[in-house]
Amino acid sequence: MTGATSPAVWTFDDFLPGSVLGRLSIALDAQRIAHWTAIYGLPTTPDRLPSGLLVAAMMEAYLRAIQPRPPGNIHASQTLRFGGAARPGDELQAEVACVAKELRRERRWVTFGVSLRNGSKNILGGEIRTIWAK
Amino acid sequence: MAVHHDIALPQELQPAQLHVGADIVHRYAELTADFNPIHLDPEFAARTPFGAPIIHGTLGLNLVVEAIEKTFGTLPAEVAIEVRFSRPVPVGATVLAGGSLRDPRTGTYEIFVATENGERALEGTCVIGMAG
């Protein structure tokens, strides 16, 4: 993974809006598909992966890019914009960035942007809005 | 049935339902690398305001995506989703995801995830075919 130098634990003060926090690859391999199938059942289109699997990949990118993190963060809201699909065996390129942060009513709001690219195509982008614990 | 950007829009999304036991939550933790103890550790969760483990928010959100794909056969070319996680869902609950067409002109559905007792855990909108 490449990106910002990690602090000992990511706190609200460490986030700089506009900065990239990490870039990483996520393989849509057999193990990942097996986990998905155990939860949601077999994909109905064998040559096209369920779009929810891309959401799961987005969350993994977000979690892996910002480590270690304090316990107690709250995932408050989420946006998703789908622009394409993926097939079994594809390897996605993810980028995680800090979009905004705001201290409001003693709550530390941080918005993260995550984009997933499959080859040259942006297949999923979205924002994860959190109340950061520290 | 309404049509938006050549996509037929049914009034209701085909619902998707899932019983979310601890085994499912552990699988989802493996899938997303999200091992937050609030989802996995009853002793840790007991010391939080939730009192017990809760499911990952996107575990339910993905059930909405499943409902959309069931309805349209596959995800339409351009889809935008915006949701708020309004209530935690305890591990062991059964959740139902669905949606209703709110505005055929823009292809906008109101979407939700609810527990067995009808409490909304996730609410928001989904716009089908927003480009074009």
TrEMBL record, chain A:
It comes from Bosea lathyri. This is Acyl dehydratase. CDD domains: R_hydratase_like.
UniProtKB/TrEMBL annotation, chain B:
It holds the Pfam family MaoC_dehydratas. Transmembrane segments: none annotated. Signal peptide: none annotated. Residues 18-117 form the MaoC-like domain. This is MaoC like domain-containing protein.
